[in-house]
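Example 241, ligand fe (ii) ion.
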Amino acid sequence: MTSRRDFLELAGAAAVGIIVAPTLVSADSRQPPKTPAIATGGHKVRDLPFQASKLKGISAAMITSHHDNNYASAVKNLNKVELELAKVTKDTPGFQVAALRERELTYTNSMILHEAYFGNLGGDGKLGGALDKRLAAQFGSTARWEELFRATALSLGGGSGWVILDLNFATGDLRIYGAGGHSQSVAFGQPLLALDMFEHAYAMDYGAAHGKYVDAFFQNVSWSEVEKRLSRGDKALQGMS
Ligand SMILES: [Fe+2]
């Protein structure tokens, strides 16, 4: 059975549209799945996938607050919005439908990107293996990739947003996206590495010194998780061709 995590990751976090991932399709690929993966309004808050006190340079208080307040609120609000959308009829004013749809997308992407972010923390920050080679092949070197990723993160400091390393399903290659909000990333991609640059992700520990938070983030990246995502994304991409 496809878990929500598999679904979300294969569906591609990003963004503006949700793709139908190959594993969501039943054995007979012409038939859609008989039941939706998640019931309307039934999204559950997932636990942090690591011990909060184990991160280096990111306090347990900050990461727990981030999880319990910002992320959990997005999930709960998404459920409420979905239940409201279920009540929409042909007589519902368009402005109400539009507002609900906008909130649905914001909370959906916030949920997905936060799960990607927490999921790619808890590691030792050491990049190696296939991903190392893939980044080097795409960007010239991993140092160049990191320079671009960090520059994008710093460009969002003092404001808010996400930096996402994505497997772009339309082009088939790895791209870095900087998003000013939850709904501005690539529409058709697999998020591989997500960095939350909203102030709630760093201000408690670092105040306005967002660069120090980016340093801490890199110390905690779980590259093995990122590599798993890339492997799933590659398989999804193959299934589309
Ligand atoms: Fe956040």
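Summary: The chain has eight helices and three strands.
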